[in-house]
Amino acid sequence: MLILSVSEAKRQIKDLVEQVDQGNDVFYITRYSRPKAVMMGVEQYEDLVGQVRQLQDEIAAIWAAVEAPSSEDEPILLPTPDGGERRFQPTRPISPEVRAAVRRAGLMALLQRERTSQQIVQDGQAALERARKQALASGAAIDDEAEAAIGD
């Protein structure tokens, strides 16, 4: 690898072409001390392009294998808005913990579908009451609104 400025490369262009044609020399051509171009033989360039294409093909094959659904794992049934279910198969490998969490979320959604809005409201009110009692017990809340007004 040789480094030349643009002005040097201009003066020696004929010799540089002969050198890259005869061997595997590569010239870095700089402008203001920064690399701007590379000069190499056609054969060397074609080899390099072939290697890049081969690597791209190999990467594409790897991605295809990664994104292909795994036949070992059974699909997860998820609820749909219309009341049905759909099969969900992750395209990438997932851990058993993630698979279990997705299954739990699907089951929770199925159970929620069966509940009435009145049941949901009652559960929410019960959760708020439990939180209020816990806050009172820990001293983080006051029980009476009149207490809050004292000293205001």
Give a short summary of the structure.
With 152 residues, this protein is α+β, with helices and mostly antiparallel strands.
Radius of gyration: 35 Å
- Measure the end-to-end span: 81 Å
Order of helices and strands: EHHEEHEEHHH
The number of distinct helices, counting runs of at least 4 residues, comes to 6
Q: Kindly state the mean pLDDT as a whole number?
A: 79
Helix content: 55-70%
Q: Note the beta-strand portion.
A: 15-25%
Strands of the largest sheet, in order across it? 1-2-3
What would you say this structure looks like, in words?
The chain has 152 residues and is an alpha+beta fold. It has 2 domains: 2-67, YefM-like domain (YefM-like fold, 3-Layer(aba) Sandwich), CATH 3.40.1620; 76-142, no CATH class. The protein has 6 helices and 5 strands; from the N terminus they run E-H-H-E-E-H-E-E-H-H-H. The chain has helices spanning 6-11, 13-22, 42-67, 96-114, 117-138, 145-149, and strands spanning 2-5, 27-31, 34-39, 76-79, 85-88. The protein has a 3-stranded mixed sheet with strand order 1-2-3. Strand 4 and strand 5 (85-88) form a beta hairpin. The model has no long low-confidence stretch (mean pLDDT 79).
Task: Describe the secondary-structure layout.
Layout: E1 2-5, H1 6-11, H2 13-22, E2 27-31, E3 34-39, H3 42-67, E4 76-79, E5 85-88, H4 96-114, H5 117-138, H6 145-149
Parallel strand pairs: 1-2
Antiparallel strand pairs: 2-3, 4-5
Question: How would you describe this structure in keywords?
Answer:
152 residues, alpha+beta, YefM-like fold, 2 domains, 3-stranded mixed β-sheet, two-stranded antiparallel sheet, 6 helices, 5 strands
